[in-house]
């Protein structure tokens, strides 16, 4: 289960400023505050990219399946299939490369 601190994630939009903060609660009792970067689609399913909100210089990105339930409600799911995870990771990389290529062209 994840908690959203400051508003819903905007679908299909890179967030240039700090995005919403989501707290991930793990089974071992640990939690991690993450910045929602953006939601994107792969093969008809939505996924979300998250970054450690307390260490934004880290290159670690967390990818989860994203289920919008209501206007301000959602759930995250683990991507358990390695092939699907690779496909989602490749799409994330493609989106980021395109974003930075456009940003450099400005």
How would you describe this protein?
This protein is of the alpha+beta class and 106 residues long. Helix content is 22%, strand content 38%. The chain is built from 1 helix and 6 strands. Strands 1-2-3-4-5-6 form a 6-stranded antiparallel beta sheet. β4 and β5 form a beta hairpin. The longest helix is centred in the last third of the chain and has 23 residues. The radius of gyration is 14 Å and the shape is globular. The N and C termini lie far apart (39 Å).
Spatial extent as radius of gyration = 14 Å
What is the mean pLDDT?
83
Question: Using DSSP, what is the number of strands?
Answer: 6
Strand order in the sheet with the most strands: 1-2-3-4-5-6
**Unreliable runs:** 1-15
* Portion in helices: 10-25%
Q: What gap, in angstroms, lies between the N and C termini?
A: 39 Å
Question: What is the helix/strand order?
Answer: EEEEEEH
Based on Cα principal axes, name the global outline.
globular
Structural class: alpha+beta
Approximately what portion of the residues adopt beta-strand conformation? 35-45%
The largest sheet, given as strand count, sense and whether it forms a barrel, is: 6 strands, antiparallel
Count of DSSP helices? 1
């Amino acid at each position: 289960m994840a908690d959203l601190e400051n508003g819903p994630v905007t679908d299909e939009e890179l967030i240039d400023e700090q995005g919403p903060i989501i707290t991930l609660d793990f089974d071992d009792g640990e939690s991690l505050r993450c910045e929602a970067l953006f939601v994107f689609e792969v093969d008809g399913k939505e996924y979300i990219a998250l970054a450690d909100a307390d260490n934004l210089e880290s290159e670690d990105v967390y990818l989860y399946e994203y289920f919008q339930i209501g206007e301000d409600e959602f759930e995250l799911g683990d991507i358990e299939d390695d092939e699907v995870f690779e496909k989602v990771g490749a799409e994330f990389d493609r989106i980021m490369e395109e974003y930075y290529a456009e940003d450099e062209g400005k």
